[in-house]
Amino acid sequence: MDELAQRPDQTLFEICSRLVMNHAVSISRQGVSQHLDVLERAGLVRTERRGRYKLHTLTPAPLERITTRWPPTGSASPPPPSPAGPPPSPPSPQEHP
Questions:
Q1: Does a structural domain hold residue 44?
Q2: Quick one: where's region Disordered (predicted)?
Q3: What single string gives the DSSP state of each residue in the chain?
């Protein structure tokens, strides 16, 4: 997805070449094609036929919807207290004989 985010309208050959050059990823063209199909079914990649070429473009809208559904990290509420109540506090120095 990072390579698709860099430039829209890439062919399978371009994506495979960029993965090898930029990330040293050695996955078959068939493997990349299968991953792109999954991303397309999930609505994360849009494809368009231009002549004999099939061009792939990232569509980040579904990912943007996720960020509005769940709060960002660090803003979650603290966990609720346990049913047994808070743990007992340690005894103060005056309570020891």
A1: yes
A2: 63-97
A3: -HHHHHSSSB-HHHHHHHHHHHH-----HHHHHHHHHHHHHTTSEEEEEETTEEEEEE--HHHHHHHHHSPPTT-SPPPPPPTT-SPPPPPPGGG--
